[in-house]
Structure formats: structure tokens, C-alpha cells
Specification:
Largest sheet: 2 strands, antiparallel
Structural class: mainly alpha
Number of helices: 9
Order of helices and strands: HHHEEHHHEEHHH
Number of domains: 1
Number of strands: 4
Strand order of the largest sheet: 1-2
Strand content: 5-15%
């Protein structure tokens, strides 16, 4: 199952990157969107480094909340939700819907899922007009939080060393240390780019743009890999023919 999930993540990377770029270009053509987003983003960066970063509880809460939300998506039952200011946090859940596939996505969720941003853009289409452009500024600030905090969280978790868990204080490994570096990189990169692009698409086109985004990711990735495989086959075919002739 780990191999399959890694393969899916690898497959969607090129399509997600291009779809992300197109969604970003779409927003850049609408000043009513990009101006408040940029303003919120510009405020969010210094706010993160001067306030939020100095209150570890906030980042830890978002980290554990992301674990819990993805666990709920897989119909897992949350038993413990622990957040501390200095010793990290812990989420304990039960259930096996989705099997190892779901467990792996839950474990790496905080590193690829822009939680606050995605929640904000999902509710954006149903909000009244008077909430704007201020709400788009808030979305920009959540983007700043994700972009600033995720590299730090990933760096801290990029180890196989053991540490005492926040809840039971038993020795455990980080989320990334449990699954391995290569697999973690593929999932974080693949699903991270995909979800950031989807968030931008929702901002620019609302719910109606979801299907076109998914279709672009799938078709583009297929075309890129099909072309690459064909090029490799074309180059290797004469060599293989000589070897076996």
C-alpha cells in the first residue's frame, strides 16, 4: 500500500504543478482577488515570525488538528487530542477505514495539507458579499502561516530519532521517521502541490472549478509520463534490438 500511495503522489506531481501555476495566473488577472490576498499574505509573514512562532501552542494545535480532521475523513474515532506548549502534541484514534492507505495519509497530513487555508476557501463561496475583500485578506494570512510553518515542522520531523510522546511519554518516532524519507518526500510534494493548487482554484473559480482542476491534473500528468516513456522506449529500442538479435 505504501508503494501504491507513493506512486500516486509521484504521478500527480507534474499535473498538479501546472494546474497550480494556471490557477495562480487566473487569480493574478483579477485585482479584486490578488490585492487582498497579497495584503493578507504580507501581513501574515511578519505576524508569524513576531507573534505566532513565539507561541508554539498555535502551531502544535494546527498540526494535531490536521491529524484529527484527516482521521475523521477516514471515519476514525478520536479518543485523545493533546496539545502542549513545549512537548508537542498527540492525537489518538481508533478504526481502520481506509486501512494502511488512510493511516499513512493521516500521519503525514500536517506536512501537505494547508488546513486553515483549505477550510477558508471551502466556505468562501457561501459567504455574504460584505465579508469581502477582508476574508480574502484572511486567506492570504493563512497561506503565509502554512508556507512559513510547514518547512520548520518538516525539518523538525525529518529524523528517525526517538523521543517521548506528549501523551503517554512512550518512546516514538516522528511522523516522517515512521514512514521513511523517500516516501514522505513524494507524499508531501505530490499532495502538497495538489492541495495548494486546488485551494487557489477554489478561490478563483469556486466549486465549479474543482472538476476542471482535477481533470487537468490527471490528463497533464498522463500526457507527460506517456511522452517520457515513449521517448525512453524510442531511445532504448535500437539498443535492446541489437542485444537480443
Amino acid at each position: 500500500m505504501r508503494f501504491l500511495l507513493g506512486l500516486i503522489a509521484l504521478f500527480i506531481i507534474p499535473g498538479s504543478a501546472l494546474a497550480f501555476w494556471d490557477a495562480l495566473l487566473g487569480i493574478s488577472r483579477d485585482k479584486d482577488l490578488w490585492i487582498p490576498l497579497i495584503c493578507g499574505f504580507g501581513v501574515g509573514i511578519p505576524l508569524y515570525f513576531t507573534v505566532i512562532k513565539r507561541i508554539p501552542y498555535i502551531s502544535t494545535f494546527e498540526h494535531e488538528l490536521t491529524h484529527a480532521l484527516v482521521a475523521l475523513l477516514f471515519f476514525r474515532r478520536i479518543h485523545k487530542f493533546i496539545v502542549t506548549s513545549r512537548r508537542g502534541g498527540q492525537v489518538q484514534y481508533s478504526g481502520n477505514f481506509g486501512g494502511e492507505f488512510g493511516t499513512l495519509l493521516i500521519g503525514l497530513a500536517p506536512y501537505y495539507l494547508p488546513t486553515f487555508t483549505l477550510i477558508a476557501v471551502l466556505v468562501r463561496p457561501i459567504l455574504p458579499a460584505e465579508w469581502f475583500p477582508w476574508f480574502d485578506g484572511f486567506i492570504g494570512a493563512t497561506l503565509a502561516f502554512h508556507i512559513c510553518s510547514t518547512p520548520e515542522e518538516t525539518k523538525q520531523a525529518w529524523t528517525k530519532q526517538t523521543f517521548a510522546g506528549a501523551g503517554d511519554k512512550q518512546k516514538t518516532k516522528s511522523d516522517i521517521g515512521k514512514v521513511g524519507y523517500i516516501f514522505a518526500f513524494l507524499v508531501i510534494a505530490g499532495f502538497g502541490i495538489f492541495l495548494m493548487g486546488l485551494a487557489l482554484q477554489l478561490i478563483g473559480s469556486g466549486y465549479a472549478g474543482t472538476w476542471s482542476f482535477l481533470k487537468q491534473v490527471g490528463i497533464t500528468s498522463y500526457q507527460i509520463y506517456a511522452t517520457l516513456i515513449l521517448e525512453i522506449y524510442t531511445d532504448l529500442a535500437p539498443i535492446l534490438k541489437q542485444w537480443f538479435s
